[in-house]
Specification:
The chain is an all-alpha fold. The mean pLDDT is 93. The protein is built from one helix and no strands. It has one helix at 3-56.
């Protein structure tokens, strides 16, 4: 294996590692967005249930 092949493999390993971090960041951001949307939907549901209870009285 000559120097160019070693440098290429090292560079490719770094790229693969960085892509792994990027994928983990994308997954984390997706979970955070899902969590935020779920919280907003819960607040909306709670408000609707509160209005429904007031109407029943």
């Amino acid at each position: 294996m000559n120097i160019d092949e070693e440098e290429f493999e090292k560079t490719m390993a770094q790229i693969v590692e960085q892509m792994g971090y990027l994928m983990m960041d994308i997954i984390l951001m997706s979970f955070k967005k899902i969590n935020t949307e779920n919280q907003l939907l819960k607040e909306l549901l709670d408000a609707k249930l509160h209005l429904k209870k007031e109407e029943d009285f």
